[in-house]
Write a structure and sequence with these properties.
- The protein is of the alpha/beta class and about 475 residues long.
- It has 17 helices and 16 strands.
- Helix content is about 35%, strand content about 15%.
- The strands form two sheets. A twelve-stranded mixed sheet has the order 4-6-7-8-9-10-11-12-13-14-15-16. Strands 1-2-3-5 form a four-stranded parallel sheet, with no helix packed on it.
- α17 links the parallel β14 and β15.
- The chain is elongated and about 80 Å long.
- The chain starts with 5 loop residues before the first helix and ends with a strand.
């Protein structure tokens, strides 16, 4: 008898009911709210299109998190749901019971289905399921557009059938349906198709943009006006934007791109990977920032002394929590530039990445004082640089007073290598012992990680597996 629990009985009753979809449709007006989600799951998994269409029109929650059920999009079930929405938006007065305002096609909402179809159903009171305030007039509710949330990962040269179908459906109903996404990720797609997709999206809904594909600067300039319309973007990542030579036309492209930053009033995190166009132009971008940044990453490119100088003078980096300058060669930079920059952010900085910057002893010694004043620092990585044991000891002494520092990644001391830059295990073991002794003398429980230079056979950004040195 233990197998016949209430959930099992409910499932059997639902499957029996769905054998006659007309019966389901006739009882929806009287169906208790808590039974809608389990019955909807049964209808969805069984691909009962007419029942799905009717349940959408009577859905008693603000949000329908359909994406949580769609491991692989099935056009028939999606079409049934969209047909139900079509009936809703076409009605002058929506059914009194229906509260549906948001169709969520993102891979979220599992908590909704788990709560309502499990033991915690009756106690769940998340705003995910909250009804629309009852004092809104029926006319006002009927005029409210239905919002459809999707995940936009544009990773194919052409649009897949699911996205093509959805875009066409939204295009035909743009007055009554708004298509929104929080996170836009572009990996590979023609600019023509990108423009087509984004022309149907409410761009001011987008909060995160990742352009992670190889674009020429002129292509980014075409995309830039769309970026400028994404006024609520908080995080922006631009990766591998190339330029052959920064001639007059390319300079104009830089202006077209950076000027759009003036419209990004909520930008907090800016990450630019391999932006070859930035050398000598960083000040143009910095001048267009309108709000203080929380995190800034400019990596694997060339920056001039004037760029670093403008960076340290920019008022909108004074509250940085994260700074990543990995892959920017600082060997030939004026030695005073990096210390000035660290002084600027010392009060708030929590994460600092200076990997593969060509930093040697003389450079590191110039930043020890400002580094020791980074009282909020929690993570520091210096991998891929050439540092001696003597300066490594100075570094450990200067950072021993940082109360929050808990993750430290350092290069293997240069004494561990032969003159041909071949790692010598015996020398490495000796250096590790000396580093442990330094930690013991400093007297603070601490774990540091050291790794050798990037492997030439694995790619420029691949480090050997870091090994910990633990003093407790």
């Amino acid at each position: 008898m233990s197998a016949w629990n209430p959930l099992r009985l409910l499932g059997l009753a639902g499957m029996s009911l769905l054998r006659d979809e007309t019966s389901v449709i006739s009882i929806l007006e009287y169906l208790p709210t808590e039974l809608f989600p389990p019955l909807f799951i049964l209808a969805f998994c069984g691909r009962h299109s007419e029942a799905l269409k009717a349940m959408v029109q009577a859905w008693p929650f603000v949000r329908l998190p359909l994406g949580g059920l769609m491991q692989t999009p099935h056009r028939g079930t999606l079409q049934a749901v969209l047909d139900g929405i079509d009936v809703l938006v076409a009605q002058q007065d929506r059914p009194r019971r229906c509260k549906l305002r948001v169709l969520d096609l993102r891979h979220t909402g599992q908590d909704f289905w788990r709560k309502w179809c499990g033991d915690g159903a009756h106690g769940y009171s998340s705003t995910l399921m909250a009804p629309v305030a009852e004092d809104r007039s029926r006319t006002e509710q009927s005029l409210t557009p239905v919002v459809v949330f999707i995940e936009l990962h544009l990773k194919e040269r052409t649009m897949d059938r699911f996205l093509t179908y959805l875009i066409r459906w939204v295009e035909q109903r743009k007055a009554s349906v708004h298509l929104c996404c929080k996170k836009l990720k572009i990996l590979s797609m023609s600019m023509e198709n990108i423009m087509k997709v984004l022309s149907r999206v409410q761009l001011d809904c987008i909060q995160e943009v990742q352009v992670n594909c190889t674009w020429h600067l002129s292509t980014l300039a075409v995309f830039a006006p769309l970026l400028g319309q994404m006024g609520n973007v908080q995080r922006l990542l631009l990766s591998h934007i190339h330029v052959s030579a920064l001639d007059e036309q390319e300079q104009q492209h830089v202006v077209q791109i950076t000027s759009q930053f003036l419209r990004l009033h909520h930008l907090r995190d800016l990450c630019m990977e391999s932006p070859s166009f930035l050398e000598g132009c960083l000040d143009e971008m910095l001048r267009c920032l309108t709000t203080p940044l929380d995190n800034l990453a400019i990596t694997h490119c060339l920056l001039s002394d004037s760029d670093l100088s403008h960076l340290s003078q920019c008022p909108n980096i004074s509250q940085l929590k994260g700074l990543d300058l990995s892959g920017i060669t600082l060997t030939y930079s004026s030695p005073e530039l990096l210390p000035v920059l660290l002084e600027k952010v010392a009060a708030t900085l929590q994460e600092l990445y200076l990997e593969q910057c060509g930093i040697m002893d003389s450079h590191l010694e110039t930043i020890l004082q400002p580094l020791s004043r980074c009282s909020q620092l929690m993570f520091f990585s210096l991998r891929g640089n050439l540092i001696s044991m003597a300066v490594m000891e100075k570094l450990l002494r200067h950072t021993s007073g940082l109360p929050s520092l808990s993750q430290e990644l350092y290069p293997v001391p240069q004494e561990s290598y032969s003159s041909q830059r071949i790692l010598q295990p015996g020398r490495l073991a000796q250096c590790r012992a000396e580093l442990f002794e330094i930690l013991r003398v400093l007297g603070r429980p601490r774990i540091i990680w050291i790794s050798s230079s990037p492997c030439l056979h694995c790619g420029d950004n691949t480090f050997s597996h870091p090994q910990p040195i633990v003093y407790r």
